[in-house]
Structures are given as C-alpha cells and as structure tokens.
Design brief:
With 375 residues, the protein is α/β, with parallel strands linked by helices. It has 15 helices and eleven strands. The protein folds into two domains: 56 residues, no CATH class; 314 residues, TIM Barrel. The strands form three sheets. A four-stranded mixed sheet has the order 9-1-10-11. A four-stranded parallel sheet has the order 5-6-7-8. It has a three-stranded parallel sheet with strand order 2-3-4, with helices on one face. The relative contact order is 0.14. The structure holds ligand V47.
Length: 375
C-alpha cells in the first residue's frame, strides 16, 4: 500500500527503520503491538503521528466529526475517595461541598424541557450516604420530565460503591440500574491501569480489574459505555499503552465501547498539581497514538471542556473524530482543575463552525452515534 503512495513513501523513507516499519503496518491497517505503540510514543515525530492517525481516522470516519446536544448533572462533589489529582472533591460537611436533592435534579432537568438536548451525562463524587435506590430515583426523576432523553450515568466507581452496598452481584446491580432507566455508562474513573501509579494518585479507588469487570458486565447486559485514560501525570508511556491494551482486549470481547477519551491531567487546585501539566504537543501525540493503537474503537473523543476549544479542534487533525457536546456550562470538574474553559458552553452553530474550519463535516449524533443531522 505504501509503495503505491509516493508522498507517504517519501515521508516514511526519511524515518528511522524501526519507526518506518510500524508506520507501514499502520498504513496497511494492521494492528500494532504493545512494543510498537511504545516506540511510536518515544520515537515518532509529531508530523508522522498526525499523518498516521489522520489516515486511520479517515478510513473509519470519512471526514465526519460527531457531536451531540447534551448537559451534565454533577449530583454531588462529596466523595469517600481522595484522589490526589482531583480538584473537585470535598468531604461531607466541608465548605464548598454540594449534594443535590431529587427536587434539585427535577429543577435542573426542567430547564431543558423545550430544548433539543438528547443526552444527560451524570457523574460526581461517591457520596457515603447514597445508594442504588437514590441513583434510581435520580434517573426516574429525569425521565419523568424528559422521557426520551438518553441517561449516560455514573462512572464505574460510583456503580461499584452502590452495588457493593446493595450486596448484589455485578450483573444484578447493573440490571437494576437498567430497569431504573440507565441507558449507558460514561468512561470516568479509569485513570491509569498500573496498580503502583493508581496507588499514588487514587489509592482507595476501585481497582483497574474491577473497572474492567464493571464495563464488561454492563456490555453483557446490553449497555454501551466509554473508556477514558488520565494521562500527563506520573505515568510512563508503557503505562499508557498497557491501559489501552486492556481496553482493546475488552473491546475485542464485547464491542461495547463507543468511544475512547484521553483526559489530560489539569494541575490547578489539587495535591498532585506541583508536577505541572504536559505540553500541548504531548496531547496531540497521545491522541494520535491512541487512534492508531485502538483499532477496534470507532471513535476518539476530544473533550473540549478539558482541553480547551482550540486544542480540541487541533486534536481533530490527530485522530479525534468526536467533539463531545454543547455542555451548556453544566460541569465543574475541569473548571475547578484550571481549564481555560471556565464556563464550558457552545451553541450548535459554534460547534458546527469549529468543525467546518478544519475542513470536516459536522454530524449531530445521538449517544450511540446514530446520526441525527448531517450539516
Ligand atoms: O475519572 C478529574 C478526570 C474523570 C481531573 O464518558 C481529571 O463521555 C484531569 O470521565 N485533571 C471524570 N482529569 C470525567 C469523565 C468524562 C469526561 C468527559 C466525557 C466522558 C464520557 C467522561 O475526570 C475522572 C478523572 O479521570 N479528572 N480530575 C484533573 N484534575
């Protein structure tokens, strides 16, 4: 394939042999190994990575960039865990903590009654006094007001806590949440696979093994989900590849993941913050390697409330094909961690213009990537 494409072969011929061989595999749409992904992270230049990721993305998504009309509910920031990267968590009763009652939820959802939102994304802290029935009441209250909205709710960490508390099996717990009206599961709480790094950044949290089991159980019950990876803190490139390898293996078994979302560590107002943040070129390198490595994922999401709009748009040239949603200034996780998007909100026209400006075709999607409107 490379031989038939003179520009690509000229570019490749100027690269070190080891990198060139991997690039040729990627261009031939072959799966790359753990070691090969680590080599790309360490030795491939940004231009080559962009070219490879863009090719893979073009084959998968034909120049389309997806987004949806959504809002978030963060029902509480009170959390039994105390992750060192988190700027948002407060202890029960601590100043700055919040917890939403069912009436608060109803009021918030009521604001979207005459709009075209199709998804509510719910995630927050792991509240010590909440249980699976409270999650059920939240979901039901939402659907009473917006019966056709897609509820993408509760990270594997929140689900783990309420299922443990209920003393039921994973499958039974997931089935119960589904009966309440849960439609899919967001990708949060994944952080990074390596147990030693996890111990340092989120020591008390659900293990990586359990995170994977929860997503697998959800997929087996017919619920789709997303996968995230928190990068740019104390992890190595090998740690990132191992994280993605585990996710790739699970996806081979279930095909239940909709998208992969690299989340850049933001360093403001948290214990880990003194290490600072990685360069924006590192974000792009990471997008590109994940696009190339996760060959069984259709979608890579550039989550703009965390990256900032401009950096998210650049990511569209490095393998990302999804811009998340309009968000409507409804999430605080990243503004509290120092994102430049202090009140993240975009109109459909703004999202459309941002996508068009990089020569891509905007597609409004539902939560399962069915297209609603092609612009
Ligand atoms: O798991 C928290 C991350 C995640 C910081 O599924 C931080 O569509 C960087 O999972 N710096 C929760 N990251 C958010 C999440 C998510 C986001 C967007 C889309 C989807 C989806 C899911 O936020 C946590 C953690 O990895 N996070 N604090 C921080 N200081």
């Amino acid at each position: 394939m490379v031989e038939n494409n003179s520009i690509a072969s000229q570019v490749l011929n100027s690269k070190p042999v080891v990198v060139r061989k991997i690039a040729e595999k990627v261009l031939a749409l072959q799966r790359i190994s753990f070691d090969e992904a680590a080599v790309l992270y360490k030795e491939a230049d940004l231009g080559l990575l962009g070219m490879l990721a863009d090719r893979v993305n073009a084959v998968k998504n034909s120049g389309k960039v997806y987004f949806n009309q959504n809002f978030h509910i963060e029902p509480t920031n009170i959390c039994v865990h105390n992750c060192t990267f988190c700027s948002y968590r407060r202890a029960l009763g601590e100043e700055g903590s919040w917890e939403m009652s069912i009436d608060d939820i109803r009021q918030k959802v009521g604001e979207y009654k005459d709009t075209r939102v199709t998804e509510v994304h719910i995630t927050g802290g792991v509240h010590p006094n909440w249980d699976i029935n409270y999650f059920g009441r939240i979901i039901r209250a939402i659907k009473e007001i917006l019966p056709s909205i897609h509820v993408k709710a509760f990270s594997a960490i929140e689900i783990d806590y309420v299922i443990e508390k209920a003393g039921v099996t994973l499958s039974d717990g997931i089935r119960q949440l589904k009966l309440f009206g849960l439609d899919s599961i967001p990708g949060g709480g994944a952080e990074i696979a390596d147990p030693a790094i996890r111990k340092q950044i989120c020591g008390t949290k659900t293990s990586w093994k359990r995170w994977l089991e929860i997503h697998e159980a959800a997929h087996n019950e017919g619920l789709q989900s997303n996968a995230t990876m928190l990068y740019g803190h104390i992890e190595s490139y090998e740690h990132r590849v191992k994280h993605m390898l585990d996710i790739r293996e699970l996806q081979d078994r279930t095909h239940g993941f909709n998208s992969f979302i690299p989340l850049k560590f933001k360093a403001t107002n948290n214990e880990l913050g003194s290490i600072g943040e990685v360069a924006s070129t590192e974000d792009l390198r990471n997008f590109a390697v994940s696009r190339v490595f996760l060959d069984n994922f259709d979608h890579i999401k550039a989550y703009w409330p965390m990256l900032g709009k401009e950096q998210a748009r650049l990511a569209l040239e490095f393998g990302a094909d999804d811009f998340d949603g309009t968000v409507d200034d409804s999430t605080k996780i990243y503004s509290m961690a120092g994102s430049e998007e202090q009140r993240p909100s975009m109109t459909v026209s703004e999202v459309e213009a941002m996508i068009r400006a990089v020569g891509r075709q905007p597609v409004e999607r539902d939560s399962l990537y069915n297209s609603i409107r092609v612009f």
